[in-house]
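[Automated response] Your request has been received and processed.

Submitted sequence:
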Amino acid sequence: MKLETMLAHHGEDRATYHGAVVPPLFQNSLFTFESWEGIDAAFDDRANAYIYSRGGNPTVRLAEEKIASLAGGERALLFGSGMAAISAALMHVLEPGDHVVAVKNIYGPTNNFLNVYLRRKMHIETTFVSGEDVQEFEAALTSKTKLIYLESPSSAVFSLQDIEAVAVLASANHIRTIIDNSWATPIFQKPLAMGIDLEVHSCSKYLAGHSDLVAGVVIGRERDITDIATCEFELLGGKMAPFEAWLLIRSLRTLPLRMRQHQENALHVARFLEQHAKIRRVHYPGLESHPQYDLGRKQMTGYSGLLSFELATQDLTQIKRFVNSLKLFHIGVSWGGHESLIYAPAISYLKELPLERFSALGLSVSHMRISVGLENAEDLIADLRQSLEMLK
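Generated structure:
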């Protein structure tokens, strides 16, 4: 089946729920059994049985089956947040004293989890690289390297990594790989098919797409996901609620349509910004001017609606005037929903990082990140134009 059809029908057996076109919500905490033998057998297969909704739930399982099929993975495991999924995947792979090579412009909390929490708690060291050249990864490897962590395109600056080349390097050195694929989604990028071991997502972004739920997912081989399910997932308790899974199933049905519209709108907006005199630079892999445009065309089939740009001023008063003058782009930290948002990374990054590390990420106070939503693109451009006119 094609993606649109698969997301509408895969995993659903309408005969078992009376022909209902929308699958039921199993909003229950536990499942009962008719016999001692029944529950005893369930405990022997905790990763697949329904015993208690902290471990497994039919509504959650249906959403997982759709996402696994979408990404080309053997199995998916949903969590209560993107960070719950990411931290579980990392802890599944890593042991005390291990070494990680990671892209420096990864999601901020992931950076902190690696560089602060795991370093302090498990003596895990992380080497951060730009990731734009596979030789950077190779040069950073040590005898203790257990993992290469990717995020392509990366946060804030949207640089790419050659996913297939990194996977080949990792496999040759018996190193595991994880990628955050939230930006492109499996609609536009299939890292597992390129040799990556585990794919993680913040489902709160495009997979859900309506800004009404928080969730995360890990996708990969059956063996890995079963191990995570019986260890990090069950013991740390980062479970996915049935209602959020039910909403996610709703959202997955429209994901291909939404991603195409996000891409169309973002390309219009990015091209407008690129030509504006008060914009210094636009960071968007869909633009021919992006330094890694050819790599993007090689490993992605499309582009999402998240991009960034740099205003042609460092005057904080002017920058605030621009942001505060926007009418359709609301100020908010997340992205991937139906609504358009703007956020300045300096607001939170400078609270967590010293100025030199902030600058080393290629960021400044003039850096703006926008999530281009599903509104009319011309209306969004008009809003940006009128706000840019506020700059002197």
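Summary generated for your ticket: Residues 101 and 127 are 5 Å apart (CA to CA). The radius of gyration is 22 Å.
If you did not submit this request, please reply to this message.
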